Every structure is written in C-alpha cells, then in structure tokens.
Amino acid sequence: MSIGTQPLCYELLAEVGQGYYGKVYKAREVGEKQRLLAVKKFTIHGDTSESGIPAFMIREVALLRKMQHFNHPNIVKLLDASAVPVGVSLDLTLVLEYIDQDLSTYLSKAPASGLSRDCIKDVMQQLLQGLDFLHMNMVLHRDLKPENILISSRGEVKIADFGLARILTFNIALTPELLRLCIIKPSVQL
Predict the structure, then answer these.
(1) For residue 84, what pLDDT band results from cuts at 50, 70 and 90?
(2) What ranges do the domains of the chain cover?
(3) How far is the C-alpha of 1 from the C-alpha of 140, rounded, in Å?
(4) Per the residue annotation, which of 91, 100, 122, 143 is the catalytic one?
(5) 94-127 pLDDT, tens per residue?
(6) 26: annotated binding-site residue?
(7) Could you give the residue ranges of the DSSP H alpha helices within 19-102?
(8) Is 143 a catalytic residue?
(9) CATH topology for the 10-167 domain
(10) How many Å apart are CA 63 and CA 60, to the nearest integer?
C-alpha cells in the first residue's frame, strides 16, 4: 500500500490531534530533507480479514492518491501510506505534508481589530479555489469545518481530512420528486 517506492522514514515529535479512530502527530523526516510531516495513525482493532478496513479510511487514501496526481496548492498532499498487521489489529499510517495550524487557531491569533479585508479575501479565494478543484473532479468533501481547513505560516490554505468525502457519480437512482425538481425551472417550482 506504500505510495512511493520506499516508505518515508520519520521521527514523531509531538501529538497534535486525536480523533475517534486514531491520532495525528507532528513528525520530522529523517535524512536529507528534514521536512516537517503530519502523520495520521489509525488502529483497526479486531480481525480485518473478516470485517475489512473501514470505508472512510479506504476513501481517504483513495481520494488523496487521486488528488496527488494533480498537485493542487490548496489540497493537503499525501506523501506516503502504509498498512501493517499487528497481531489481530491493523495499523494504518498516512504521512501528509505538515501545515502549522487550522483555521480556528489562525483566527484566534488575529488582532483584536480582526483580519484585514485583503487577508480575508486571500483566505477565501484559496479556499474556494480548493473547493472548485474538488468539485471539478467530482469530489464532495462533506466535512468542511475550521479544523479541516489548514493555513500555513506563509498564508497557504489547504483543505484536509477526506474521511467523509465522496466521488459524485450520476448512476444514483432519482426519485420522481427529485427528477421533477431537476428538470423544472426554479420559477415554476415555487
């Protein structure tokens, strides 16, 4: 399941977040580059040969792998992924580019007078460019919130956490009501 030809070697520096299934760590790449990384570690308890890997984990890896081919500046980059059996459990690790803070932290550091209009416009423009890119590629994030919008110290906005995302397909069954709403002019619907 590894993304590159060789897995990235890194050392964990500090835990920076925790979710229902796992933890996120700040890490540093060992070797030449020494770049900072975000490492998401999930542990799937129980026999995965019967229950399988949870769908949200498969979706997140699949979508991030798809997005890495486009290298969009407003989507967090997946650098490596691995799944390692540990007894009857499975440890899934995602290695992502490290971004300093989320939108909540960024806003909490704003001056008392608030952010300037130019700063707000820049953040919103980058966020909308990322969303536009996702939507042009038929990806619905479905969990956009301040914790999943990351902002670097250089002001780069990145969309993260694709665990609830879906690829939009048109082979879904439409009920007669939905179909009617899709084809009738909005002025007639009222």
Answers:
(1) confident
(2) 10-167
(3) 24
(4) 143
(5) 999 999 999 999 999 999 999 999 999 999 999 9
(6) no
(7) 48-51, 55-68
(8) yes
(9) Transferase(Phosphotransferase); domain 1 (1.10.510)
(10) 5
